[in-house]
Specification:
One of its GO terms (molecular function) is DNA binding. The chain is α+β, with helices and mostly antiparallel strands and about 200 residues long. Helices cover about 30% and strands about 20% of the residues. Strand 6 and strand 7 form a beta hairpin. Helix 1 crosses helix 4.
Length: about 200
């Protein structure tokens, strides 16, 4: 349902939508804002703001904090589109309270009215495998801001973008719901095993 070459329409499409997709460099539609580069000694065990790091999206449950008051573009607020540009290469829509986001995360600010945030999220998620082919570094694999700004981005009309974004958002919600059920069942299974094999 996403255009393979960013211009020709995809094989599967919602009824009533016709015509080729528009193509643009990502940097022409999106600003990539760098997070705060912290030194280890600046990260506190408690403070005013949580500091969002790449690991907090994956397996690391430890949070650091900061009391620093920074310029507005260093904070992520609920609903902001973020991009993990080191090790993981994926977008995330932030759903929690205001935090300071770390240097290895970009906040993506859409600078045009003809690109929908939820659609851009879906497109970036779909683009992960291509991104992995264009990474740099050996100790910390990453993608550069310059490469991201030059990536060709294909998109249909705003109305079709909104419909596609909501379509895939529903799938993600269903997957999350089932994952929560699986996690709960795994915990119940673990508890039974511990009680039955003491």
């Amino acid at each position: 349902m996403l255009s393979k070459n960013n211009v020709l329409p995809p094989k599967i499409r919602f009824a009533t939508f016709i015509g080729d997709w528009e193509q643009r460099k990502l940097g022409e539609a999106v600003s990539f804002l760098n997070g705060k580069a912290y030194k280890q000694q600046e990260l506190l065990n408690e403070g005013k703001y949580r500091v969002l790091r790449v690991g907090n999206f994956n397996t690391n449950n430890k949070w650091y904090y900061s009391d620093l008051e920074l310029e507005e573009n260093k904070y992520a607020n609920r609903g902001d589109l973020l991009y993990l540009w080191a090790t993981d290469f994926k977008p995330e829509i932030w759903t929690h309270e205001r935090v300071i986001f770390h240097y290895h995360i970009w906040k993506l600010v859409i600078t045009t009215t003809d690109v929908d945030k939820q659609f851009l999220y879906v497109w970036l998620m779909n683009d992960r495998e291509q991104i992995k082919k264009n990474t740099n570094g050996t100790t910390m694999v990453h993608v550069t801001k310059g490469n991201m700004e030059q990536r060709l981005f294909g998109f249909p009309s705003n109305e079709e973008q909104v419909k596609l974004g909501l379509f895939f958002k529903k799938f993600a919600s269903i997957i999350d719901l089932h994952q929560q059920k699986i996690d709960k069942l795994q915990q119940i299974k673990k508890a039974y095993l511990q009680k039955m094999f003491i």
